[in-house]
Design goal:
The structure holds two protein chains of two kinds. Chain A is built from four helices and seven strands, in the order H-E-E-E-H-E-H-E-E-E-H. Chain A is of the alpha+beta class. In chain B, helix 6 packs parallel to helix 7 and helix 7 packs parallel to helix 8. In chain B, strand 40 and strand 41 form a beta hairpin. Helices cover 22% and strands 27% of the residues of chain B. Classes of the chains: A alpha+beta, B alpha+beta. The interface between A and B is large, with 36 and 41 residues.
Chain lengths: 139, 993
């Protein structure tokens, strides 16, 4: 991955990026790789790189992602995520998996504006968006 | 008469420039910003606030805080009406309306006060004694009558128009209570840079500093508090939560608090929640909750005008309201004398001071002289007089002589109970401290320190010093700053004299629990009748079981019982304290989770297509699934379902099965892993083939079933039932991470990745051919029953096709990436139109699986074994798997266990009833004659009559028997014939068609 895609796979709880690719370590030895503007060729692209050293499972359709940014975002997300988003506890590069408002959510901090990306299962998209809307009422 | 006859001309923390109008029991009043409803009414000359719970006795203010047991009102009107709200906690706002509770027809004239005369009926244990006979009267007469008589306020009847919020807060140091100890702790911790949260139930931090005349560092206590808060507000990592009650402590440093964000406003501002529930996660904490003053127990101690001495000072100093014109003070120690001093300073008359101690220090005698008060050293209160308000106090002096003193206020000071309830939520037991003459926390929860009065350190200097010390230590525990050396001097013995639990008995009732009307006589009765342990005492007398949770009552009640049993109070102990510390609104606990937001909803990718076809939806867990698709002119669901089933059996239908759990597994050990997970053999499955898979729990019962397809030699995709999707994935994760970490297998849920459709019916192949790329060969020879493969759609998109059938007809399941789900469903329906395709829902699917005798929800109930379901032959003998050993337990192999059978009505026109029990003809319909039950029923259009599945003892050997299916719930009974589970096409001809 590093040689051919320039993507250094991160340890658990972290994410890394290179070019249009982002790798999130979700569990030891397992990574969720995402591509900006996915054209649904990523699976083949990765399979060609990893060959026998790993297996690739297609998940391009499985999740929805929402990015939230701004000075009020910690307050808003404080009403949704049971996570410590304080800069002393979580910085850009960090990933956390949690359950918020009964939804399984993967959170990735992108920068210290702060900007967070939240991933949730596709079938929950409506409820997920609604929960974030309600969280936004707090700010 | 002035509108504020009891308002002092100067002083107080009220804003006299901001006048507020409000109403109580329909009468108009005014008060000032900074008032509570209690203080504003008091200043307006009101002394009667409510009627008591059992006896409807007139009651006035007892306290000035959240422990108030008497002055409970219904706040606001209509949908925002909130019963049982302590007037002492209601911040006054313009337009506030409140009414008193528990009176009929009016507060001053209460017909039910006659209950006082019937008090022998309402004594301890009255529920159990009076209303036992006749039993049939209980539900219809006694209980409603007692409830109406005892009702404390009415809940709102329409939906709450406000919204509530839940939020999480993390910190290093949580300081509970913002009195002098809490402020000192927060300052000490906050100055180190630690993340600090300070919370207090009051809108204004300061605690007793707001109510007592104290000087700290040369400035008045009130100013010291506001300076401290200003500094805390300026520290970036410190957060001060006002109007926030910390009400529960849970494991691992989790605390729960409720912030009354908007209760002090007529309605919440735009987007503002009424309450916010805080889940606070703290690494360490300081308990600075202060103490609650103990009432004294004497005859007539509940008459309006009898008030806690500390509360009297709150009204005088904080609210500039005089609770009475002429006071008598009764005290067990120095505490009451502070109130005497305040009266003297304000020039208000004190008629008498009763101090239990026979000898008093000269300084106190001087103080009494300055206040113009007679002193009764060694005296007691023998009773009170007056109707709806106190007008005299009967005093017995040290020699036993009676003195009747005219007074409209009796301030009582019985010592202080440290507010240690929170410290006991994790099971810590309070310990009696002789030096503090109170219960203090025994073992504190992990990471917690007690400071100030909460720790039994009642003097101001001790509170400040112990607060600073606890705050610094708590921060040091988290790696901030350094701990202080101890600067707290031990408690001096004279701070509180020994407590008086009970003054000599008189003919008047002496109340222990004001809110629940528990008097000393009730405690004595409980003792006589053997209910002597503190937990029995509580339940027998309801002592401490009101909404105030016995904060004023418990220690006195337990102490009286300890005296009666001859134990020390420390030996008698206390009842267990549980959350919440004060009542919490259900709205705050629910947060946003109400109505449609009660829980998340999952929609399958082709949901919109089903919506466009006017499907009726049903909930399957979080999922919305199409239940059936009514056509114009159909009269009800049964007609629709019959049409859908018939279409599938005779033509073709399509059903969205995207909600099934789907797990994709890869890796060299994937096949071996599945062999251990499933009861049947998986590793022998060829690439491009699928197989039914049965999964047992470790205890040998069936966990779930589904299909396993081998896409490549090291790639499988398995399905689970919709209900068990999460459970099966967790089970697999557990097995891999804990039991067999050595296996090289990876798996993830792909439930959301793939939309999946079942295409079923004799014409399914033709429709499939039409939606796939023209080069795809799905002929029976190339793609036989249980084949699995990858194809391209006519539009070139990826499709996984599995020739599996739940319906029993020729069927395929097509899986497409979720983004194509809606398009694919529409394409299948379009391609199927020439073949008469119908979309069908979960009802038709269920009918067809019952026709085929496939077990599902009613049979996969967690209590059935593979053998019970007729699947015993699937258990492999060639390998080990989860559940293998325990499935062999004799009781699980017992042939008399209820096992799967089919059934049909003997009278073919009869309807079957799900949940009916099998009873032999002629046997009584009793539990001992019960032979099993009907687990699933359906009307089979193919057979033209009702059919069912059931679980029947010795079932497999009883085909052909006639039994009664009795449903006492619906009051029906049907004669049924037991059959094999499979009702239709047992040879599977249609399946392979």
């Amino acid at each position: 991955m590093q040689q051919q895609l320039g993507l250094e796979l991160p340890p658990p709880g972290r994410w890394t990026a290179s070019g249009d690719l982002v790798a999130i370590c979700t569990t030891p030895g397992q990574w969720l790789v995402m591509q900006d503007h996915n054209d649904f060729t990523l699976c083949d692209r990765l399979s060609a790189v990893v060959l026998e050293s790993a297996t690739v499972i297609e998940l391009s359709d499985s999740r929805v992602a929402i990015q939230m940014s701004g000075t009020g975002v910690r307050t808003a997300l404080g009403t949704f995520l049971p996570l410590d988003l304080h800069p002393r506890a979580m910085q850009p590069g960090a990933v956390a998996a949690t359950v918020a408002a009964h939804l399984p959510v993967l959170v990735r901090q992108i920068d210290d504006v702060p900007t967070y990306e939240l991933l949730c299962a596709r079938s929950f998209a409506g409820s997920f968006y609604r929960a974030l809307e309600l969280a936004g009422v707090a700010v | 008469m002035s509108a504020h006859p009891r308002r002092l001309p100067t002083g107080g923390l009220i804003d006299r420039a901001t006048k507020l109008s409000f109403s109580f029991d329909g009468a108009a009043y005014t008060g000032y910003a900074g008032d509570t409803l209690a203080s504003a009414l008091l200043a307006s000359g009101v002394s009667l606030f409510g009627r008591s719970f059992k006896y409807h006795r007139p009651r006035g203010l007892l306290s000035a805080g959240s422990e108030e047991p008497n002055a409970l009102v219904e706040l606001r009107e209509g949908a925002r009406r909130e019963p049982n709200t302590p007037a002492t906690m209601i911040e006054l706002y313009d337009g506030l309306t409140a009414v008193s509770q528990n009176r009929f027809p009016s507060l001053r004239f209460d017909l039910l006060a006659v209950n006082s005369l019937l008090s022998p009926l309402f004594s301890a244990g009255f529920y159990y004694k009076t209303f036992m006979w006749p039993a049939s009267f209980w539900e219809k007469l006694y209980e409603p009558m007692i409830r109406r008589a005892a009702g404390l306020g009415r809940a709102a009847k329409s939906a709450d128009p406000d919204h509530y919020e839940r939020a999480t807060l993390f910190c290093d140091v949580l300081v509970i209570g913002a009195g002098p100890a809490g402020l000192a702790a927060a300052l000490a911790a906050g100055r180190t840079g630690a993340r600090v949260v300070l919370c207090d139930e009051d809108p204004q931090p300061g605690g007793r500093l707001l109510s007592d005349n104290e000087i700290i560092d040369g400035v008045p206590g009130v100013r010291w508090a506001s300076q401290a808060v200003a500094e805390l507000d300026s520290l970036p990592e410190v957060r001060v939560l006002r109007r926030t009650t910390l009400f529960g402590i849970y494991d691992h440093g989790v605390y729960a608090a409720v912030e009354r964000v908007a209760d002090h406003k007529p309605v919440p501002d735009d987007r503002e929640p009424r309450h916010r529930l805080w889940r606070i996660v703290a690494r360490s904490s300081v308990l600075a909750t202060g103490a609650t003053e103990r009432p004294l127990v004497f005859g007539g101690n509940d008459r309006p005008g009898v008030m806690l001495a500390g509360a009297v000072r709150s009204y005088l100093n904080r609210f500039a309201a005089a609770p009475g014109g002429t006071a008598v003070v009764v005290t067990s120690g120095d505490s009451g004398w502070q109130t005497v001093a305040d009266f003297a300073r304000l020039g208000l008359p004190v008629a008498a001071v009763v101090d239990r101690r026979p000898v008093l220090p000269p300084a106190l005698i001087d103080l009494a002289q300055r206040a113009g008060a007679r002193v009764f050293a060694g005296g007691t209160v023998a009773g009170t007089g007056g109707g709806l308000a106190l007008n005299r106090v009967e005093i017995a002096d040290a020699q036993g002589r009676r003195h009747s003193i005219a007074a409209d206020l009796l301030a009582m000071a019985g010592g202080w109970n440290p507010a240690i309830q929170l410290a006991c939520h994790l099971g810590g037991k309070p310990a009696w401290s002789d030096s503090a003459a109170a219960f203090i926390a025994g073992t504190l929860p992990p990471g917690m320190r007690a400071a100030g009065a909460a720790g039994g350190l009642f003097r101001l200097a001790q509170a400040l010093a112990s607060g600073s010390e606890a705050g610094a230590e708590a921060a040091a525990d988290c790696g901030f700053g350094q701990a202080l050396h101890s600067v707290v001097t031990p408690e001096q013995a004279d701070a509180t004299a020994s407590p008086i639990w009970l003054m000599p008995a008189t003919r008047q009732k002496a109340f222990v629990d004001f809110q629940h009307d528990v008097a000393t006589t009730d405690v004595e009765l409980a003792h006589r009748e053997g209910y002597r342990s503190v937990e029995h005492l509580k339940r027998y007398t309801t002592l401490g079981m009101a909404t105030d949770q016995g904060r004023l009552a418990n220690v006195n009640g337990l102490a009286i019982m300890a005296t009666l049993t001859g134990q020390g109070i420390g030996e008698a102990g206390t009842t267990r304290y549980r959350p919440p510390y004060t009542p919490v609104s259900l709205g705050a606990l629910a947060g946003h989770h109400r109505g449609l937001d009660y829980r998340p909803t999952r929609l399958p990718p082709a949901h919109e297509v089903a919506e466009a076809r006017r499907a009726v939806f049903t909930e399957a867990g979080a999922w919305q699934r199409a239940q059936y698709f009514p056509a114009p002119g159909e009269s009800g669901w049964l007609q629709t379902v019959v049409r859908e089933v018939t279409a599938v059996r005779q033509g073709v239908g399509v059903c969205d099965v995207s909600t099934l759990g789907k797990i994709e597994l890869t890796g060299p050990d994937a096949a071996g892993f599945l062999d251990r997970i499933y009861a049947n053999m998986i590793s022998t499955l060829a690439v491009g083939r699928a197989r039914y898979g049965l999964m047992l729990r470790e205890d040998g019962f069936v966990m779930d079933d589904g299909t396993v397809a081998r896409l490549e030699s090291e790639r499988f995709v398995v399905t689970t039932t919709t209900a068990q999707a999460g459970g099966v994935l967790s089970h697999m994760e557990f097995c891999h991470q804990v039991l067999w970490p050595e296996l090289d297998v990876h798996f993830v849920s792909v439930s959301d990745q793939w939309a999946q459709f079942a295409l079923a019916g004799p014409r399914a192949r033709q429709v499939l051919q039409a939606v796939l790329d023209s080069g795809a060969d799905v002929s029976d020879a190339q793609f036989p029953f249980m084949a699995a493969g990858r194809f391209r759609s006519a539009g070139g998109a990826t499709v996984r096709v599995f020739r599996i059938s739940f319906s029993g007809s020729l069927a395929y399941e097509l899986a497409v990436p979720a983004r194509n789900g809606a398009v694919a469903m529409a394409a299948i329906l379009a391609a199927g139109t020439p073949f008469g395709i119908v979309p069908y829902g979960t009802e038709a699917m269920s009918v067809m699986r019952i026709e085929k005798g496939h077990p599902a929800g009613g049979e996969l109930n967690g209590q059935t074994t593979a053998a019970d379901l007729g699947l015993g032959r699937l258990l492999s003998t060639k390998k080990d798997f989860i559940g293998r050993v325990l499935a062999q337990r004799p009781a699980l192999r017992d042939a008399s266990r209820p096992a799967l059978v089919g059934l049909r009505p003997v009278d073919r026109s009869a309807r079957l009833s799900g949940g009916a029990h099998f009873i032999a003809p002629g046997a009584a319909m009793t539990a001992s004659e019960d032979q099993g039950w009907v687990s699933s029923v359906a009307f089979s259009p193919s057979l033209g009559h009702w059919i069912g599945l059931g679980l029947l003892g010795h079932g497999p050997s009883r085909h052909g028997e006639i039994l009664r299916a009795c449903d006492p719930v619906r009051g029906v009974e049907t004669l049924v014939e037991i059959t094999a589970p499979c009702h239709l096409d047992p040879e599977g001809v249609q399946l392979r068609g």
